[in-house]
TrEMBL record:
InterPro entries, alphabetized: Epimerase_deHydtase (IPR001509), NAD(P)-bd_dom_sf (IPR036291), UDP-sulfoquinovose_synthase (IPR053578)
UniProt source species: Candidatus Aramenus sulfurataquae
Signal peptide positions on this chain: none
Occurrences of domain NAD-dependent epimerase/dehydratase (ranges): 3-285
Protein name: NAD-dependent dehydratase
Length: 385
């Protein structure tokens, strides 16, 4: 297949390019390197130094024998996006090219507006570009389990639910509640994709993914192939942040009570799930919603697992709950359904306990580099000032 990855330079985009290339698919990617730039804006950087795009492509060829076509451009350049679709005729476009940090979106009005403009505009432009160039192209769009918030009822793996109000029944979009402007941008993306699917009949896989953790995939066989790894308060997701805290001798810091429950997935399992969804597209004109996670944990439990992993490597650490900078339920019900990925034969091969140890092992050689960014790990961005 021919796959166009928007956001190919990112934490998920790069290993997906390697996975698909290694499977014999033709990979084309676009990225404006904004995560690199914005990470520097908050005084942080990737734990692993990143080669520039040109070198990344060369290293992929050298170690895996794969050819990747990498364009350093903004996907919001509509004419360019259409030109790439025309030139390469992809079967599927994977859309990762969004501002993906909740704290970044909550810094001030400028960051909130940027997040909404960048994320919604790229989704709408992609839909129209596909409609103009070839409406049969499958859009695989990455949303987040965070779109649902934490409702006090089970979360179905379906965009619609039947409701009965005052004796009358109808089908409505399942209610969602974002916990940041970033999460609202993902909710609006989903609404737009549902709308354009019904309007133009475009084929969509809309993935609700839980936070991803990990440093390894089958194809990362050399340091030069590593994907970015963020651990600061703005860009780092919880497991990745805790692993670096342990290495730097900082306490592991669950926000608030730490009873926030989420569905997590390792980088390796996320790549495998994405591969399956790309190789098994929905029917033409279908909108397919997918829940993508492997294990469900509270943040408190994650801190305990990372602490045990660090201790198994001789690193003493402690857990210290800190004031929650976010506005979110700290104890709640959580029960999302998951059936699409298992129906495609997906089963998780990794677990947090083993992966946390592997992550710490991979990060330890970079301890000196990590310690330079110690000051950007503790939460500073507060949802309510
Ligand atoms: N990492 C996770 O835990 C996680 C969990 C759920 C959902 N997601 C979603 O998955 C997607 C990928 O996440 P990630 O962790 O790889 O993030 P990332 O920030 O590492 O990667 C996104 C890439 O998109 C690029 N980008 C952003 N806007 C662009 C634009 N206008 N034009 C071109 N390139 C642009 C960035 O430079 C970056 O390289 C995001 O949409 C994110 O919201 C991630």
């Amino acid at each position: 297949m021919k796959v166009l990855i928007l956001g190919i330079d990112g934490y998920l985009g790069w290993p997906l390019a390697l996975r698909l290339g290694a499977r014999g698919h033709e990979v084309i990617g676009i990225d404006n390197l904004s995560t690199r730039t914005f990470s520097e804006e908050v005084g942080a950087d990737s734990a692993f130094p990143l080669p520039n795009p040109e070198d990344r492509v060369k290293e992929a060829k050298k170690h895996l024998g794969i050819d990747i076509n990498f364009y350093v451009r903004d996907v919001n350049d509509y004419e360019f996006l259409k030109e790439v679709l025309r030139r390469h005729k992809p079967d599927v476009v994977v859309h990762f090219a969004e501002q993906r940090s909740a704290p970044f979106s909550m810094k001030d009005y400028k960051h909130a507006v940027y997040t909404l403009e960048n994320n919604l505009s790229s989704t709408v432009k992609l839909v129209y570009a596909i409609k103009e160039v070839d409406p049969t192209i499958h859009i695989l769009k990455m949303g987040t389990m965070g779109e649902y918030g934490t409702p006090n009822f089970d979360i179905p793996e379906s965009p619609f639910v039947e409701v009965e109000i005052k004796g009358k029944k109808d089908k409505i979009v399942f209610p969602r509640w974002g916990g940041s402007v970033y999460h609202w941008s993902k909710i609006f993306d989903t609404d737009l994709l549902l709308y354009f699917n019904s309007l133009f009949g475009i084929t969509v896989t809309d993935i609700m993914q839980g936070p991803v953790y990990g440093t390894r995939t089958q194809e990362i066989v050399n340091e030069s192939l590593r994907t970015r790894f963020d651990f600061d308060e703005t860009w780092g997701t919880v497991v990745n942040r805790f692993c670096v805290e342990a290495i730097l001798g900082l306490p592991l810091t669950p926000y608030g009570k730490g009873g926030q429950i989420r569905g997590f997935i390792s980088l390796e399992d996320s790549m495998e799930a994405l591969r399956l969804l790309i190789e098994h597209p929905p029917n033409q004109g279908e909108y397919r919603l997918v829940h993508q996670f492997a294990e469900i944990y509270s943040v408190r439990k994650i801190a305990e697992i990372v602490k045990a992993a660090a201790e198994s490597l001789g690193i003493e650490t402690r857990i210290q709950n800190v004031e929650n900078p976010r506005v979110e339920a700290e104890e709640h019900y959580y029960n999302p359904e998951i059936k699409v990925l298992p129906s495609l034969g997906f089963y998780p091969k990794k677990n947090l306990k083993d992966e946390a140890k592997a992550m710490i092992e991979d990060l330890l050689p970079y301890k000196e580099r990590l310690s330079r960014f110690k000051h950007v790990i503790m939460p500073k961005t507060k949802w309510r000032r």
